[in-house]
Amino acid sequence: MGIAMGPNQYGKAEVRIVSVNKDTPRHTIKDLNVSTSLRGDLDAVHYTGDNSNCLPTDTQKNTVYAFAKEAPIGEIEEFALRLGRHFVDTAHGITGARVLIDEYSWERIPVGGAGHDHSFARSTDEKRTTAVTVDGDRAHVVSGLKDLIVLKSTGSEFWGYPKDKYTTLAETNDRILATAVTARWRYLSTDLDFGKSFESIRATMLEAFATTHSLALQQSLYEMGKQVLEAHPEVAEVRLSLPNKHHFLVDLSYCDLENNNEVFFAADRPYGLIEGTVLRDDVDPAPQAWYSLPEF
């Protein structure tokens, strides 16, 4: 029986970087969490500890900082593509790179009715994300967002489900529907205005969530993905993960009050987790860009 090394990668995880552009008195900031992973001819380092093809993870970290200084970061997809192509083109024995970036949003603090030139506030935990895979001379971009918390105070029902002796959940035709959206979408090209596309896709998903009279969170998931694909031909597929942030009606009968879907208890766990992919049937299947490791 032979034993061999399987799919593998290595890199530097969660390089936190804040870059301030001071070209004008009105500063801009980019607040990122960057992770890099490299793949290639790495058998020797696993089998014998030969590091000749093993670019140090510390060098990868330093490259992130240096690239942020040498040129404006721009859109996170563009920054990730530059980093990935650099590692593949310059690192001995490396044939593939994967760069993951989370971007934290900051808003200008309003002063005198206008945003301040160099003072900012974080008003949300939402993050913009990208996962760029460079494989030789090919590149794939998967962008998205996470921790986008949304809520509908009505326009949501849940009934008609199977029931057995363990079922205690009551059917309802009026409930709060809330979730923290994690979405990823695969682009068909790397030659795009990524910032414009991101803002439009985000707005499309929010509108779909708001306007869909939902009989199940699964239905909302499908509508969110479908409407993105209908409006954005540059997107091949959308993957969504939607935890159901349950809001349970409080029984106020103990004090002779009628609760007409107005007072709820917000439970953080356990929670339903609804996940799915909405895709075009006329495009190639997802490449390695979706995966942390090369496919088996």
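the 2nd protein, sequnce then structure:
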Amino acid sequence: MRIAVVGSYGTGMTMRAERIPGRGETLGDATFSLGPGGKGSNQAIGAARLGADVSLLTAIGDDVLGAQGRELWRREGVDASAVATVDAPTMTGVILVEQDGENRIIVAPGALDLLSPAHVAGFAEVIADADLLMVCNEIPADTVAAALRTAAEHGTPTLFNPAPARDLPQDVAALVDVLTPNLTEAQVLTGLDTTDPGALLDALRQRFAAKIVLTCGTDGAHVDDGVERAHVPPVLATRVVDTTGAGDAFNAAFAVAWCRGWDLRRAARYAAAAGAFAVAHHEVVPGLPRSEDLEER
């Protein structure tokens, strides 16, 4: 199976502490780690580890962090030949993780702000040859739109992970085949201040013709194929140490399962198992499972 990914890459600087400091407060006794991240790269690596032939389009700086990214993709078997090197620093995120695994993240986009529709045009042949295009929201909105339009022009199915949350023009929304928001992202897309999955799915259905997978953390996921809805129970993690990469693991596993021809519910169960694996591991890339780590549910 061939999966094309248009999305982000960056480096995560993670601080772990018993709790997050309040405004003006300084805490000691934290631990620090540095590791690769970015939803596009994470999902590309996750899909490659689960057996997909993956090509990635992102933008990096001509710096040490960008070089580390290219080495990472080489090791993980991700085709990064289309990755653009631009005149800006590689994206960096600062991640604060509390003792219970919950996290807060702030990002300096850097090179990602320069990933453009022109770069997508150069990636069009890869998109055309793919079985699925994955796109996330950590890149400029016009680049997201260009990627989805290119896939539509070539008949390539699309999976859009609207993270981080921002609104989507209706003409672009119409190009999404599979939509995978979490509760917060669904609220932004619908304008609703509710965590009720049914209400959010009703509102999303008014805007999207896509198949929808609404992820709800410890409540599992709710899927809607346009005809029927179903609740997919959560897969319980052996422990929870870091929730940072759970969504990326979920999306990567879902994409692979979908390309295998699995139905929506079965693909979401497999993806939930990947998410449970991820939260039991510190940092994102170590928490992206391989096929032998997951049961075919």
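The CA atoms of residues 112 and 288 lie 23 Å apart. Residues 2-20+31-294 form a domain with the UDP-N-acetylmuramoyl-L-alanine:D-glutamate ligase fold (CATH 3.40.1190.20).
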